[in-house]
Amino acid sequence: EKKDPKKDEL
Amino acid sequence: MNAFRLVGDLCHLAAIVLLLLKIWKSRSVAGLSGKSQILFGLVFVTRYLDLVTNFVSPYNTIMKVFFLSSSIATVYLIYTKFKATYDGNHDTFRMEFLLIPCALLAIVVNHEFSPMEILWTFSIYLEAVAILPQLFMISKTGEAETITSHYLFALGSYRGLYIMNWLYRYYYENNFDVIAVVAGIVQTVLYCDFFYLYITKVLQGKKLQLPA
Q1: So where does this one cross the membrane (chain B) (predicted)?
Q2: CA distance B212 to B210
Q3: Per the domain annotation, does B51 fall within a domain?
Q4: pLDDT at residue B43, as a whole number
Q5: Angle, CA B19 vertex, CA B18 and CA B21 arms, to 5°
Q6: How many CB pairs under 8 A join A and B?
Q7: Nearest neighbour of A5 by CB, restricted to B64, B67, B175
Q8: Does residue B212 belong to any structural domain of this protein?
Q9: Least CB-CB distance to A5: which of B9, B120, B177?
Q10: Would you state the pLDDT for residue B212?
């Protein structure tokens, strides 16, 4: 599923 | 991960290392706003609460741990170890003028009304304005040490590069987070005045002096 965009950014 | 975000993270890392180097080598926190560093510490604490619950990658975890520990260490250095060199008289920006609006906005404007999401949103809004006490202090003292201006340039560049990263992810990964993007643009715009001074002065070998 589409990874939640913000959760993989610092 | 794309080049914009990687270079952005490295700029962020460089900024924090530059700041620690400045403090350690000069044994002084002169010219630094302790309030901005407290706000940055708060940004990392409220943003990285999922450090242990949401594993993304070794890189992500290592960087989060470094950012958390270095920002807490910086606050410690300013308010205890090198307290004698802390220029409290010029670090007078009222933090509550930033904390309260960011908290209220995070409660009203967010993606999901849950504690984690509201804290993450709060950290995004707070990061956008956390540098204001430092910029305010420089405007009051009228100058900044060269290494402090390098620190600010790296710090301002990091979020500017993140904007490129969000453009890239929008077009190629169909990822888009309007809250992060709008706050990131505000954050980068706040540095514009400083970027102009940095490029026209510091890069010409002059000291960063604000027009009196």
Answers
A1: 62-80, 92-113, 119-139, 151-172, 178-199
A2: 6
A3: yes
A4: 98
A5: 65
A6: 26
A7: B175
A8: no
A9: B177
A10: 63
Could you give the residue ranges of the DSSP H alpha helices within chain B? 3-26, 34-47, 58-76, 96-108, 115-129, 132-141, 146-172, 178-200
Residue B111: name the closest of B122, B100, B101 by CA. Answer: B122
Contacting A with CB below 8 Å, chain B residues are 5, 9, 12, 50, 54, 56-57, 60, 63-64, 67, 120, 162, 165, 169, 173-177, 180
Range of the domain at B193: 3-204
| pLDDT over 90 (residue B61) | yes
Number of domains in chain B: 1
Determine whether the interchain pair A10/B120 forms a contact, defined as Cβ–Cβ distance below 8 Å. no
**Which pair of tokens denotes residue B46?**
């409220």
Residue B210 lies in a domain: no
Q: Residues in chain B, how many?
A: 212
Give the residue from chain B lying closest to A4, CA to CA. Answer: B175
Residues of A in contact with B57 (CB under 8 A): 8
Residue B147 structure tokens: 């290494």
Residue B30 has pLDDT above 60, yes or no: yes
Buried/exposed code over B171-181 (b: 16+ C-beta within 10 A; e: otherwise): eeeebebebbb
